Amino acid sequence: MAVVKVIEILAESNKSWEDATKIAVAEASKTIRNIQAVYIESFQAIVENNEIARYRVDAKVSFLVEK
Fold first, then answer.
1. pLDDT in tens, 7-65
2. How far apart are CA 10 and CA 54, in angstroms?
3. Domain-by-domain residue ranges, the chain?
4. Which helix (DSSP H) or strand (DSSP E) does residue 59 occupy?
5. Residues with Cβ < 8 Å from 43, sequence gap 6 or more?
6. CA–CA dist 56, 33 (Å, integer)
7. Taking the C-alpha atoms of 7, 10, 12 and 15 in order, what is their torsion angle to the nearest 10 degrees?
8. What value, to the nearest 5°, has the Cα angle with vertex 15 and ends 8 and 21?
9. pLDDT of residue 38
């Protein structure tokens, strides 16, 4: 029986929410193996001078736990 663990990661990009998600997975993959999925719980944008300056995601990354 497989066991899956879920961690929460906050990531930020100055390009897009999609890029912030890619950054979250890339950073998680530096120390975690067997990543299976990423679920975005929430989105946030930081506004400066009436324009979006940064995009943030609250990502839940799931991975298989090794035996």
1. 999 999 999 999 999 999 999 999 999 999 999 999 999 999 999 999 999 999 999 99
2. 13
3. 4-64
4. strand 51-64
5. 17, 55, 56, 57, 58
6. 24
7. 50
8. 25
9. 97
In Å, how far are 17, 19, 21 from 52, measured between CA atoms?
11, 14, 17
65: tokens are 């736990």
Instruction: Indicate the CATH number of 4-64 among 1.10.10.60, 2.60.120.460, 3.30.1660.10, 2.60.120.620.
Output: 3.30.1660.10
Dihedral angle sign, alpha carbons of residues 55, 29, 65, 63? positive
